[in-house]
Amino acid sequence: MTKRALITGITGQDGSYLAELLLAKGYHVVGMVRRSSTVNFERIGHLQDDIELVPGDLLDEVSMIQIMRSQRPDEVYNLAAQSFVQTSFGQPVLTGETTALGVTRVLDAIRLSDHEVRFYQASSSEMFGKVVEVPQSESTPFYPRSPYGVAKLYGHWITINYRESYGMHASSGILFNHESPRRGLEFVTRKIANGVARIKLGLDTEIRLGNLDAQRDWGFAGDYVDAMWRMLQCDEPSDYVVSTDETHSVREFCEVAFGHVGLEWSDHVVIDERFFRPAEVELLVGDASRAREILGWQATTPFVDLVTMMVEADLDNVARQQRNLA
Ligand code: NAP
Ligand code: GDD
């Protein structure tokens, strides 16, 4: 029997990599997409003949119930969220509705569908926030520092609550930052990679950034979607930290990215107050030993390879845009 998977957030970075992985494993992949006035299928355009898209929105419970009843998926991956931390300070209620209560809407729709479903929740290392121990593992207490982090913490606990209350196969991946050439342009890694490409190709002279001292445990998104799938193949649902177990600063990211194209980062990076946050997460570094032991999962892309992959991809993108304009 072909397994059926539903992905919310399929148009996002992770959704596109997860769809590729599940298709390669022979799944029938259904993606939930929300209505917008312009089509937003940049990351999944190449998959459109192989996946089924259904309309729905995490803000609308009826659409979720309808999808669950009509699609009867075996596995549900809840990746949809308002995922940009900076925006969550300006739009805290929308972030809570989507990133927190949206999880309950999906879980309730599954419960009402009266069908055996395995559920994955996209939890986040942002829940560790002002970290109380280093490195952070599944037993580290949470201390979120943004409306996004608070919303994700709600999503995390409601997943555990539905598992314990209704015996649902519901697992939560506490994923540390993961990046790729498909990362949204507002996130710092892609902003730097794209900025480096534009400077190298003569279109810009500077990148304006905020806190260069922030440290993150950055992995490759293509590796991380495999951990999501592995969690749902386990007999018992559980929660796992997924990380590289290495940390690097934004400044180091700049050094490697500019260095890759033979430029000095400090000649081009300008500090801009607009990109500082009201409360910052200074340091994240994971301990993924439980995922290694139980899931057999390991990050495979070193930091320098990730940075250079992203810069190379943006050099190609920017050069292509220049050719199209010529
Ligand atoms: P992303 O690129 O920002 O994608 C977010 C997805 O959510 C998009 O498909 C977006 O659709 C969809 N979405 C937003 N609001 C929605 C709504 N109301 N109803 C339905 N769909 C909605 O995020 P990502 O990097 O792929 O991350 C995937 C998930 O993992 C997110 O939940 C994120 O918070 C979490 N996470 C990410 C990381 C990371 O480092 N990437 C780490 C930990 C956890 P549109 O295309 O229509 O906007
Ligand atoms: N975006 C951005 N833009 N961040 C900047 C900038 C800038 O110009 N300058 C410095 N930073 C710093 C931020 O202050 C933060 O400390 C760090 O770079 C990373 O910022 P983001 O790339 O926006 O990611 P994030 O860590 O806040 O959140 C991402 O990772 C979480 C997992 O820990 C997102 O993908 C979240 O959805 C995810 O849950």
C-alpha-based Rg, rounded: 20 Å
Q: Helix- and strand-based class?
A: alpha/beta
Q: Give the total of domains.
A: 2
Q: Which term fits the overall shape? A: globular
What does this structure look like?
Helix content is 42%, strand content 16%. The chain is built from ten helices and 13 strands. The chain has helices spanning 13-24, 61-71, 85-90, 92-113, 147-166, 188-200, 221-233, 250-260, 289-295, 303-325; strands at residues 4-8, 28-33, 52-55, 75-78, 118-124, 169-175, 178-179, 207-209, 215-216, 219-220, 239-242, 248-249, 269-271. The strands form four sheets. It has a seven-stranded parallel β-sheet with strand order 3-2-1-4-5-6-11, sandwiched between helices. The longest helix is centred in the C-terminal third of the chain and has 23 residues, at 303-325. It is globular and about 60 Å long. The mean pLDDT is 98. The chain binds NADP nicotinamide-adenine-dinucleotide phosphate and guanosine-5'-diphosphate-alpha-D-mannose.
